[in-house]
Design a protein that fits this description.
The chain is built from five helices and 27 strands. The chain is mainly β.
């Protein structure tokens, strides 16, 4: 059933602080990032944004369903189907949603009749023509070992957290509650819940600087509830992460410039990539004044790469001119040893060129071997350009062979 956010979160974990939906225009229809959410229709995406969550609901009587219909709800069946096109990373992509998935573009309280009783569900109560929903029933599962990398003033929100050690399909996430120093915050889809494994918010919605996230509760479309105990500290001030960013960009010579060509990256080319970095506003006036041509740049701190839109990769891998490079949280090219927290593997980047080393290399007088081939891709790229580790037993390209 399509449950508005205010109804869904009303009885979950006691009182939760409401958060205004921070839906990005156009992204509400992208099933690869919007999770198990819904909106009214195509036109309402830009005017109202995402309305709420899809979740199993127990209904006591047919009379209650009639009340829902009087409130504007519709019954979605296997015969229902919707198709639409979206511009995803510069390419028009067709999405087709059938059966219960067609609830994505249906009114509040619209429903699809399940043929099997789910293990977890909410119970609908109708009184005097008004609806309410119980807390989700069932045993809550728990998974340890989840960590998070925090980025301030990020691409989508003031605070963004990339989670590791959590395995959820973005399309199945109905809702998330973040417990921050004893206070529960209800998150909305897309900006607040991005791809399932990334969460975030604007400071106007949650004031969490200097506080610690202690738990993340995930509600999945099949009714499953999972707690992820965490200890993720949110920095007190934005400047703490910005003060190390490039402060200026001196002139570079042709000898200093690295190759400026950025080849097309395909899912078959095997390595990781996280979400993109910042913009020229944080790099400094001299960088901003130098134009938006894509290519390698250098300042007194180190090398960084400018994308064609003026942003730069941060905490991200990129394939440039046939070689892999890695960039730190401030956007600078890494050199030397680096352990990737996503796959736990160790890599080495040439101290001079910054390119990832493969094969055999002598480093500080000792010989090391790095994986130079993979039988099948160990990473895959989603439709937003992010590389996701597939969790295979095979070593990724460039990983240290121990």
């Amino acid at each position: 059933m399509n449950i508005p956010y205010k109804d869904f979160y009303a009885d979950e974990q006691g009182a939760v602080d409401g958060i205004s939906s921070a839906t990005l225009n156009g992204k509400a229809r992208n099933v690869n990032v919007n999770g198990a959410s819904y909106h009214q229709n195509e036109e309402a995406v830009t005017t109202e944004g995402i309305r709420g969550a899809m979740y199993p609901v127990r209904v006591s009587s047919m009379a209650d369903l009639e009340v829902l219909k009087n409130l504007g709800a519709k019954q979605v069946t296997d015969a229902d189907s919707i198709s639409y096109e979206m511009n995803v990373r510069g390419q028009m992509t067709t999405f087709t949603l059938s059966g219960k998935d067609a609830l994505q573009e249906a009114p509040d309280y619209s429903y699809y009749v399940l043929y099997e009783k789910p293990a977890f569900y909410k119970t609908l109560t109708v009184a005097d023509g008004k609806t309410s929903f119980s807390a989700a029933s069932g045993r809550v599962g728990k998974a340890e070992g989840v960590t998070g990398s925090v980025t301030l003033n990020a691409r989508h929100a003031d605070v963004e957290i990339s989670l590791s050690g959590i395995e959820v399909d973005a399309k199945t996430v109905s809702a998330v509650i973040a417990t921050i120093d004893g206070t529960n915050y209800a998150l909305h889809h897309v900006v607040n819940i991005w791809r399932g494994t990334e969460i975030g918010w604007d400071n106007a919605d949650i004031s969490a600087g200097g506080k610690t996230i202690t738990n993340l509760r995930y509600y999945l479309k099949d009714g499953t509830i999972r707690d992820y105990p965490v200890s993720i500290e949110i920095p007190e001030k934005e400047e703490e992460q910005q003060e190390e960013k490039p402060e200026g960009q001196p002139e570079t010579t042709p000898e200093e410039q690295k190759p400026e060509r950025q080849p097309e990256v395909t899912p078959e080319e095997d390595h990781s990539s996280q979400s993109g970095g910042g913009s020229d506003d944080s790099i400094g006036s001299s960088a901003a004044d130098s134009g938006s041509t894509a290519g390698w740049q250098r300042n007194t701190t180190g090398w960084w790469y400018r994308n064609s839109d003026g942003s730069w990769p941060a905490e991200q891998w990129m394939l440039l001119d046939g070689k892999w490079y890695s960039f730190d949280p401030q956007g600078y090219m890494r050199t030397g040893w680096y352990q990737d927290p996503k796959d736990g593997q160790t890599y080495y980047f040439d101290p001079e060129s910054g390119a990832m080393v493969t094969g055999t290399a002598v480093i500080d007088g000792q010989q090391y071997s790095f994986n130079s081939s993979v039988p099948a891709p160990t990473y895959e790229q989603d439709m937003d350009g992010k590389w996701v580790w597939k969790g295979t037993e095979d070593l990724p390209l460039g990983a240290l062979i121990k």
